Amino acid sequence: DDEFSISDISLRLLDLSEIDDFMAWATDDKVSRTWETHYSSKEEAVNYIVDFVIPHPWYRAICLKDRPIGAIIVTPNSGIDICRAEVGYVLGSKYWGKGIVTLAVKMVASTIFFEWPHLERLEALVDVHNPASLRVLEKAGFQREGVLRKYCLHKGRPIDAVIFSLLSTDHPHVNYFM
């Protein structure tokens, strides 16, 4: 798995039969430092996939040679906020630092505004203490807008989050092959 090309990375729906692949990143101690996990058993993870992943409007497995190694999620807003959606991602720690998430974010950015024509803004929130994730969004062409102090809780503690955005009008400048 150390050697791969851009064509080896794909985004697709996660199948319940891939629970073991899902558990590999969902129970990864390094991943849980930056990503809130809500399950400690395989049964809880199955329930999460059935109750959240499958009905979610835009949840994709990040696959390396068609094997899920992480996920990328675009969560839409509603009402007067329907023009905005939030992107989030998670990747098994053994695949960190290889440009895989940056590529996945660029793939989403290059298609989401066509899939959801009402969308004007794709945003992301990142813990200020997660420099790798901050770099992912910068490399993917997102604009850093500022820091939201004590914005949300992570493992019961308030964290500051950096907010990033990509606008539909920025889209022509995004090329996921770069």
TrEMBL record:
A Pfam family recorded for this sequence: Acetyltransf_3
N-acetyltransferase domain mapped to chain residues: 9-169
Chain coiled-coil ranges: none
Superkingdom per UniProt: Eukaryota
Keywords: Transferase
Transmembrane residue ranges: none
Matches recorded under Gene3D superfamilies: 3.40.630.30
One MF term in the entry's GO annotations: acyltransferase activity, transferring groups other than amino-acyl groups
Keyword Coiled coil: no
InterPro entries in alphabetical order: Acyl_CoA_acyltransferase, GNAT_dom
Name of protein: Putative N-acetyltransferase p20
Source organism of the structure: Davidia involucrata (Dove tree)
